[in-house]
């Protein structure tokens, strides 16, 4: 181990399922500095832009620091008595299925374990589901069908060892950036390595691809069926391995009926992909939400697994399917049985032997016999009043569930809603009767499991703010108040971990895959010192590779290939809703932005909600660049900034999922998404809504910066944090009579000195407010989208008003342009200048000249893009 510096604490990143090790150093002032842990097997020292900015997200200004009941601060005792009483009453009056928990893959394993134990063992209902239903459920269902259990056989090293890496529905460059960097490095070391990206959209990940297959949304099964046929025809079937596999003939027969044309791909491209796959033994298929979030998600997973099983390319170095998990503890949630149809330690809720074993182990009074409500059904039952008491922990369903307006209204109409969060400023928290302050990432202690089954410790770095308590502690306290003191008598997460490890020994008696019984008996210091370790960790300590030996976890020990056929997405485009809406993530924001949006540098990459539209579609609809688009679907409406780009094909549009009523009320894209689900996994089709587009006829556009929060209420607004204040994009239909009065209200500055320039004929106005000669707020408006250097204006906050109202820097100070490299703080213009000067012609040279892309590297695909565009421009001149 490389030593750690004095004062540094080893922990794990708060965000994605890569699960990077972090060395954090508290600065003694409630802050921390971070660097990548060089010894952690997930990242070996690397961090992405979000990881680098962890220290900038810890301010306490928006934290929830005391319990609240109906909006008023309350004592913990009163709040928790109320929760226990209301749940007890609902159960007494209506039975255990009248209550529900909706939890999260961002809980630590220990939190998750207690939530699951309380609901399934003691309340006696399986109505606990998690946001993993929106995330990993199709993979879980596909793994179980094929392997008899939910095992991810691959590891991160396999990606590096492979000769062909196929990325299906994964924007690895932005969503698992450190894995992407490992892949990029492996390809740089071995240029003969091939990478194929299968995604309807040309993402940043495609920059590394030798082949990008922009297939029709939802058509992955057809492509992998074509591949299975090609595997057979090309002689790549592993006859010996097929002794361990059932269902080859049926799967192949079904695959043979598939019409590859539904993929919309050129036959030559399909062939090129199949040829590459067939002739390359070391193949890793990485897949993510483009696969899972689909009404045929489980079939997509099995179509992929079929190909690996048929070739025996599974469980061996450099080979295998690898589902990358999204949330930091999505995998841990699967281990503790967080889903409504699962039981702890990969045991089955519907298997009486498993159920009895868990009941005996927990000494539990009641166990449900059947699976509980899956997320979409769960909120339907909230809407119709069947669920009388609901506890939402560590997730924001009023934003992230499909048909989000309906879900929001359902929560608002529920008799009793408890929300545990780190902040009250979420769309869901605003609907709670009881709001419980949870400790956050920097304050919590426990374990998380990443995409390749590596368990890592997350360690507390800072004291809990105010009265905030740990999620496991809040849950256990409610368990005690409901009358189950002995079962919830935990004093420290290590005790919960110990119990989980002991339960896994029970599971091991059933010869299940999940086994951490080798970690039993860790005392507190052993737990505190636990180094990253991949399960299984059996009592005899062996760590094996799954499936290479042909042993699976089905009744007969053989894997299953499934006959599957492609189905189009549930919603069909039609003349009323002619566009297919794809949704997903951007590089520097995390989900509903409650944490990442606190770091100014993470807001600079893409600062407002947007819609990617193909140039031809935009032209046909009269949507000009940077104007606004009204997007409607059968379930809702959004207004988003038009980003006109051929990264999407005609007829398809893409919008990020991150914005909320707190940050951009018309940017809640899940309002547009229908709640159609996969029949097996219950996972919603988040990536294939149908929508109509129209230009949003704005009478004015505005851009504002302010040292204080803004009271924006125009038809369109989106705000984000900048250093020293806020910035907002705005637009409205009616032009106000008096811009100064409007600005004073917006900024809540009734008296402050104001300088303004306006031109009624062009509709422009520029207003600057200053105190003591220093800029405190400014508003620029125009009839067309406001053109000015936003970062420059934001940087003027608190500065002397020397170049008033120019909107761009003077010649002496070049404008760095929009932030491209969040880690090193390098703007687009700085990079362009380096390229134009002739000093930098490659990504590496841009790094050498400007430092851009030299830390986490997440922006390197975009730098490559700028270089390419520049070369095209130069050639055209
Ligand atoms: N920056 C950032 N990183 C994150 C997160 C975040 O919020 N921000 N969230 C984390 C979480 S919880 C998750 S689950 C992961 C998600 O990680 P990813 O799954 O990589 O991310 P998404 O952007 O949701 O979707 C991936 C891609 O699926 C494509 N797609 C859409 N439809 C189809 C289809 O029918 N077939 C195929 N093959 N592809 C399709 C989309 O165009 C998109 O590029 O990211 C994790 N990492
Ligand atoms: N259209 C569309 N919708 C999607 C997706 C998509 O691709 N497209 N992706 C789906 C996927 S894969 C996912 S994972 C979900 C994510 O969606 P959500 O889970 O709803 O999003 P988050 O913003 O991560 O919500 C986490 C909440 O927990 C709070 N929190 C943070 N730390 C703690 C803690 O330690 N304890 C407690 N109690 N609270 C804490 C945060 O402040 C935040 O409010 O979105 C899903 N929705
Ligand atoms: S890739 Fe980035 S967000 Fe994901 S765990 Fe690593 S540092 Fe955190
Ligand atoms: Mo996710």
TrEMBL record:
Its EC number is 1.7.99.4. CDD domains: MopB_CT_Nitrate-R-NapA-like, MopB_Nitrate-R-NapA-like. One of its GO terms (cellular component) is oxidoreductase complex. The keyword 4Fe-4S applies. It comes from the Bacteria. SMART domains: Molybdop_Fe4S4 (SM00926). Pfam families: Fer2_BFD, Molybdop_Fe4S4, Molybdopterin, Molydop_binding. PROSITE patterns: 4FE4S_MOW_BIS_MGD, MOLYBDOPTERIN_PROK_1. Keywords: 4Fe-4S, Iron, Iron-sulfur, Metal-binding, Molybdenum, Nitrate assimilation, Oxidoreductase. SUPFAM superfamilies: ADC-like (SSF50692), Formate dehydrogenase/DMSO reductase, domains 1-3 (SSF53706). Its cofactor is [4Fe-4S] cluster; Mo-bis(molybdopterin guanine dinucleotide). One of its GO terms (molecular function) is 4 iron, 4 sulfur cluster binding. Belongs to the prokaryotic molybdopterin-containing oxidoreductase family. NasA/NapA/NarB subfamily. This is Nitrate reductase. It comes from Jannaschia donghaensis.
């Amino acid at each position: 181990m490389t030593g750690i510096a004095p004062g540094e604490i080893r922990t794990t990143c708060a965000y994605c399922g890569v699960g990077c090790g972090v060395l954090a150093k508290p600065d003694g002032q409630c802050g921390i500095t971070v660097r990548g842990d060089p010894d952690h097997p997930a990242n070996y020292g690397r961090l992405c832009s979000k990881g680098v900015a962890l220290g900038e997200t810890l301010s306490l200004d928006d934290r929830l620091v005391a319990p609240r009941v109906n909006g008023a601060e309350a004592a913990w005792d009163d709040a928790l008595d109320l929760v226990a009483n209301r749940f007890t009453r609902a159960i007494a009056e209506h039975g255990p299925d009248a209550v529900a928990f909706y939890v999260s893959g961002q809980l630590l394993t220990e939190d998750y374990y207690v939530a699951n134990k309380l609901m399934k063992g003691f309340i006696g209902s399986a109505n606990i589901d998690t946001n993993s239903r929106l995330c990993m459920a199709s993979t879980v269902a596909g793994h179980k069908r094929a392997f008899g259990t939910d095992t991810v056989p691959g590891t991160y090293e396999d990606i590096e060892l492979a000769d062909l890496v196929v990325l299906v529905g994964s924007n690895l460059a932005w969503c698992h950036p450190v894995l992407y960097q490992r892949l990029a490095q492996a390809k740089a070391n071995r240029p003969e390595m091939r990478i194929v990206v299968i995604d309807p959209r040309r993402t940043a990940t495609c920059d590394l691809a030798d082949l990008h297959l922009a297939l029709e949304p939802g058509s992955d099964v057809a492509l992998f069926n074509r591949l299975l046929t090609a595997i057979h025809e090309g002689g790549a079937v592993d006859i010996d391995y097929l002794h361990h596999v059932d269902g080859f003939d049926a799967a192949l027969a079904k695959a043979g009926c598939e019409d590859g044309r539904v993929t919309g791909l050129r036959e030559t491209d399909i062939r090129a992909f199949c040829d590459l796959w067939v002739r390359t033994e070391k193949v890793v298929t990485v897949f993510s939400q483009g696969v899972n979030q689909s009404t045929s998600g489980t079939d997509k997973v099995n179509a992929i697994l079929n190909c690996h099983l048929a070739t025996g390319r599974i469980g061996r170095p450099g080979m295998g399917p690898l589902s990358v998990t999204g949330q930091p503890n999505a995998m841990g949630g699967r281990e503790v049985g967080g889903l409504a149809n699962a039981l702890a330690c990969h045991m089955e809720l519907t298997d009486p032997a498993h159920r009895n074993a868990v009941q005996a182990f927990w000494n539990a009074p009641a166990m449900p016999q059947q699976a509980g409500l899956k997320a979409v059904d769960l909120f339907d039952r909230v809407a119709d009043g069947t669920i009388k008491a609901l506890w939402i922990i560590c997730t924001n369903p009023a934003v992230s569930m499909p048909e989000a307006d309906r879900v929001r209204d359902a929560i608002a109409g529920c008799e009793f809603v408890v929300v545990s969060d780190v902040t009250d400023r979420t769309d869901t928290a605003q609907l709670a009767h009881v709001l419980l302050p949870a400790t956050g990432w920097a304050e919590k202690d426990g374990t998380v499991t990443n995409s390749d089954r590596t368990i890592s410790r997350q360690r507390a770095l800072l004291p809990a703010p105010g009265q905030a308590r740990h999620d496991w502690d809040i849950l256990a306290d409610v368990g005690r108040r409901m009358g189950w003191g002995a079962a919830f008598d935990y004093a420290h997460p290590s005790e919960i971990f110990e119990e989980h490890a002991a339960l896994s020994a029970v599971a091991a008696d059933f010869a299940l895959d999940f086994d951490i019984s080798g970690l039993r008996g860790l005392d507190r210091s052993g737990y505190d010192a636990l180094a990253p370790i991949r399960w299984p960790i059996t009592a005899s300590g062996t760590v094996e590779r799954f499936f290479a030996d042909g042993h699976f976890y089905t009744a007969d020990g053989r894997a299953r290939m499934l006959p599957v056929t492609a189905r189009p997405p549930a919603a069909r485009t039609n003349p009323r809703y002619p566009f297919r809406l794809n949704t997903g993530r951007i590089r520097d924001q995390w989900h509903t932005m409650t944490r990442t949006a606190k770091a100014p540098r993470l807001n600079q990459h893409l600062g407002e909600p947007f819609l990617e539209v193909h140039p031809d579609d935009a032209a046909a609809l009269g949507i000009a660049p940077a104007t606004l688009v009204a997007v409607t679907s059968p379930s809702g409406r959004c207004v988003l900034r038009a980003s006109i780009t051929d990264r999407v094909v005609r007829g398809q549009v893409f919008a990020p999922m991150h914005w909320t009523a707190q940050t951009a009320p018309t940017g809640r894209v899940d309002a547009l998404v229908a709640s159609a689900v996969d029949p097996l996994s219950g996972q919603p089709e988040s990536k294939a809504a149908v929508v109509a587009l129209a230009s949003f006829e704005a009478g004015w556009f505005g851009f504002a910066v302010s040292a204080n929060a803004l009271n924006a209420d125009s038809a369109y607004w989106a705000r984000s944090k900048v250093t020293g204040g806020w910035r907002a994009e705005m637009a409205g239909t009616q032009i106000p009579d008096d811009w100064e009065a409007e600005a004073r209200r917006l900024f809540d500055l009734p008296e402050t000195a104001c300088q303004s320039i306006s031109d009624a004929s062009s509709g422009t106005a520029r207003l600057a407010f200053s105190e003591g000669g220093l800029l405190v707020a400014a508003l620029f408006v125009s009839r067309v989208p406001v053109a000015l250097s936003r970062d420059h204006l934001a940087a003027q906050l608190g500065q002397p008003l020397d170049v008033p109202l120019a909107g761009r820097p003077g010649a002496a100070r070049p404008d760095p342009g929009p932030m491209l490299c969040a880690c090193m703080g390098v703007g687009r213009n700085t990079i362009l200048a380096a390229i134009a000067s002739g000093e930098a012609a490659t990504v590496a040279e841009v790094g050498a000249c400007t430092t851009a892309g030299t830390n986490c590297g997440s922006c390197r695909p975009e730098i490559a893009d700028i270089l390419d565009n520049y070369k095209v421009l130069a050639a055209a001149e």
